[in-house]
Amino acid sequence: MYCALLIVTIALAGVWADADEDKSKCIQALNPGTFRCCNKGPNNMGLPISPEALHRDEALKECFQLPEMMESCAREICIGNKRGIVSLDGNVDLASVKSNVERDFKESPELVTKIVQNCINNGFSKFGSDDMCDIMKLKQCLELQILSMCTEWNNEPPCTGSKDIIDKCSEIYA
To answer: pTM for this one?
Structure first.
């Protein structure tokens, strides 16, 4: 009996370890570089502002002077605060997120529905590790919803396998 319990415990630990490894791969895949691997998505991926345009935005200039480190979230909190969706202490205002999403992605109603359902109504806390701040988890959720709408992927390095990873991440966080 003890041996059977030990085998089941080891098997479950392996499944949990695989799930943690898969989530870690998702966290790594959800970055601005992955957007460059998508050749075609609805309405230019629904992105109202390109990452490059964000860097040129004078209102956000001070935010990009801050270090980009997942642990601190200072840059993301600064950007979110200036866009009116995050308080300076890092609290996300879901009503403001929803109104921004509806405004920014109005040309892609399917994407709006997906973001509202998966990131706002169902919460975003599962998108990322426990030590990630809320704005980073929200960012991960938004990026996954946008990338999951990609209809044509570049399969050349460094993009090889990006579609499969995004599909797997969509399943993990469903």
So the answer is: 0.80
